[in-house]
From TrEMBL:
Domain of life: Bacteria
Protein name per the record: PAS domain S-box-containing protein/diguanylate cyclase (GGDEF) domain-containing protein
UniProt organism field: Paramaledivibacter caminithermalis (strain DSM 15212 / CIP 107654 / DViRD3) (Clostridium caminithermale)
Domain EAL: 23-273
Lineage: Bacteria, Bacillati, Bacillota, Clostridia, Peptostreptococcales
């Protein structure tokens, strides 16, 4: 028994060490990438269901030379505060991309960026956004910010104030990963957002069923609160058809497009429902 106990302990200990070492490794990769500007953004189309046209692109962060998922490196960036400088790079890059598209005549394609709670609470966020919009002569309404309900954990009143200030600038706010958290639906009545993004896991679970009542009801609830609804992670036609029937406003997923580089030549005028 003693031996088993020891082995168990060793095993556990090794795993802890590994996780810690992994984190350090990722932290070092991130520090290097910040110094060498080794990040890039990919853009995934978000399509308006009523028109079949691209309304917006979600900017998704990648490392240039290393194949490492943001679901692995973003949490490390958040823990180490590196998310602040990485996040500023993302904001600047996205707004510059909006400018590039505008100059090329690609009109009315918004960009949505993901914003971590730490970034939202950064006291320099607002002026940084203002300055970057001004530098690039871009209307703030072209930018959307995706947040998760996690921003409410630290200081609900403060989060609401900041979001309202961002909205005052003209930025739209989307509540990301909707349906994955623990809060009640009640917070939809007070968090100042324009849209909710139904998480992939929600669609996967509830659109499988013949009865789509759960998703349909969420969409109706959102609409009754004047919120638009985006469904993300949509991979098959049946899901799309059910969402359309349920009145969903926007759709995003591999069924239509993977995240792309910033070249829009081939897809700018594409109608995504000409299957
Ligand atoms: P997210 O914000 O929920 O982004 C959606 C994720 O789903 C993206 O993964 C996207 O590539 C993926 N996806 C889109 N359509 C489909 C589909 O049809 N099927 C499947 N299986 N996946 C799909 P990605 O790019 O790996 O990003 C993962 C997460 O990392 C994001 O989840 C977001 O939370 C975070 N992230 C990415 N870029 C940034 C960033 O610039 N800043 C911050 N703070 N977080 C970021
Ligand atoms: Ca997102
Ligand atoms: Ca999401
Ligand atoms: Ca997610």
């Amino acid at each position: 028994a003693k031996k088993t106990g020891k082995n168990k302990y060793l095993f556990f200990d090794q795993r802890m060490t590994l996780a810690f070492e992994e984190k350090i490794k990722i932290e070092n990769i991130l520090r290097k990438a910040i110094k060498e500007k080794n990040f890039k953004l990919l853009y995934q189309p978000i399509i308006e269901i009523s028109t079949g046209e691209i309304a917006c692109f979600e900017a998704l962060l990648r490392l240039k030379n290393i194949n490492l998922s943001p679901s692995l490196f973003i949490p490390v960036a958040e823990e180490t505060d590196l998310i602040l400088s990485i996040g500023r790079w993302v904001i600047k890059q996205a707004i510059k991309q909006l400018k590039k598209w505008e100059d090329k005549g690609y009109k009315n394609k918004h960009i949505a960026i993901n914003l971590s709670p730490k970034q939202l609470y950064d006291t320099k966020l607002f002026s940084f956004l203002q300055d970057t919009f001004k530098e690039n002569d871009i209307d703030p309404s072209m930018l959307e910010i995706e947040i998760t309900e996690n921003v409410l954990i630290e200081n609900r009143e403060e989060a609401i104030k900041i979001l309202q200030k961002l909205k005052g600038l003209g930025i739209t706010i989307a509540l990301d990963d909707f349906g994955t958290g623990y809060s009640s639906l009640n917070y939809l009545t007070f968090i100042p957002v324009d849209k909710i993004k139904l998480d992939k896991s929600l669609s996967d679970k509830f659109l499988e069923l013949r009865n789509t009542q759960v998703i349909d009801s969420l969409i109706s609830l959102a609409h009754s609160l004047n919120l638009k609804v985006v469904a993300e992670g949509i991979e098959d036609m049946k899901q799309y058809e059910k969402l359309k029937r349920g009145g969903c406003d926007y759709i995003q997923g591999y069924l239509f497009s993977k995240p792309l580089n910033g070249e829009l030549e081939k897809i700018y005028n594409k109608n995504f429902f000409d299957f």
